[in-house]
Amino acid sequence: MKEKLDGQTPTSRGRAQDRARVAGGQDHEVKYEATKEGVSKDAVKKAVKSAGNSREKVEAVIGRR
């Protein structure tokens, strides 16, 4: 059973939104995306900087390289 926090019912909505983003400042997220896409961490950071933090957009930029 999920525990209520501050009178709110927890949902999975936050997780889905979080997974749709790449936090360029979080080393573990950058490393995960780099390994997944087969590119360097630097390439992922550059993609986040140019395309924003949307995982879909970052993957599209990386795919063009």
What topology emerges from the helices and strands here?
Elements: H1 13-19, H2 27-37, H3 41-51, H4 55-64
Helix pairs in contact: 2-3, 3-4
Could you explain how this protein is built, in words?
The chain starts with 12 loop residues before the first helix and ends with a helix. The model has no long low-confidence stretch (mean pLDDT 85). The protein is mainly α. The chain has helices at residues 13-19, 27-37, 41-51, 55-64. The radius of gyration is 15 Å and the shape is elongated.
Task: Give a concise summary.
With 65 residues, this protein is mainly α. The protein contains 4 helices and no strands.
Structural class: mainly alpha
Give the number of helices: 4
Order of helices and strands: HHHH
Which whole number gives the mean pLDDT? Answer: 85
Quote the distance from N terminus to C terminus.
Answer: 45 Å
Percentage of residues in strands: under 5%
Overview features:
mainly alpha, 4 helices, about 60 residues, elongated, single chain, about 0% strand
